[in-house]
Design a protein that fits this description.
single chain; Endonuclease, Chain A; 2 domains; 7 strands; elongated
Length: about 220
């Protein structure tokens, strides 16, 4: 059994235990209120379990939804709309953004993202690295974004990521996406805790820039 399947089984087990405990608790409360029942001592243990499970489930949900971690944030997105909303927030942060992409379909298919990128380019430096020219890249280039065509990006499977504040040591944030909807995961690495990971992304972008100059 795969690790993911084991994790899913454990999670459903917790859900079942919580549901059974909650049902026992509610039934007991009904008997106390309507029939004056005096519950045995174990009833209060069930009550404690339900409260603790509720807090635990709430924590798991918040950690997955908001990425509540001290050094790395990993959040699962279930739709293109959720991913694009995240990207608009990411674009709004930092004074420089370096985006390594394939076709920029997430921009061409959502006008609000395109608008946000064009607006942000007025106050920030945005570099986009693509394997080839296309219509959306031309449009963005005409509106202040820096488009870099790197043919080697289209030859093999390459990383797709966004690096924020590349030139501010200690403050950079690396966002890497992987998977497919409805289980698309975006992980954020903060340079103060993952300097090696961010350094690899920075070196990769510098190599792409050098490749472009030598072309």
């Amino acid at each position: 059994m795969k690790t993911e399947e084991i994790g899913r089984l454990c999670l459903w087990t917790i859900y079942v235990i919580f549901a059974v405990s909650a049902a026992v608790l509610l039934a007991g409360l009904a008997r106390i209120v309507f029939f004056g029942w005096s519950p045995p001592s174990f009833y209060y243990y069930v009550f404690s379990i339900v409260i603790l499970e509720s807090i635990g489930l709430l924590f798991l949900w918040m950690r997955n939804t908001f990425g509540l971690r001290t050094s790395m944030k990993a959040v699962t997105y279930t739709s293109d709309e959720e991913i694009n909303n995240y990207m608009k927030k990411l674009i709004s942060s930092g004074s420089t953004l370096d985006i390594v992409s394939g076709r920029l379909h997430w921009v061409s298919e959502d006008k609000t993202v395109k608008k946000k990128m064009i607006e942000r380019a007025k106050n920030a430096e945005i570099n986009i690295y693509l394997p080839g020219e296309n219509q959306i890249a031309q449009e963005l280039g005409m509106n202040g974004l820096h488009i870099h065509i790197i043919p080697s990006l289209g030859r093999d499977q390459h990383a797709r990521f966004t690096l924020v504040d590349k030139n501010r040591p200690g403050s950079a944030i690396l966002a890497v996406g992987c998977g497919r909807i409805p289980k698309f995961i975006i992980s954020e690495f903060y340079e103060d805790s993952y300097p090696q990971v961010v350094a690899l992304a920075r070196d990769y972008i510098n190599r792409l820039s050098e490749e472009e100059r030598n072309a």
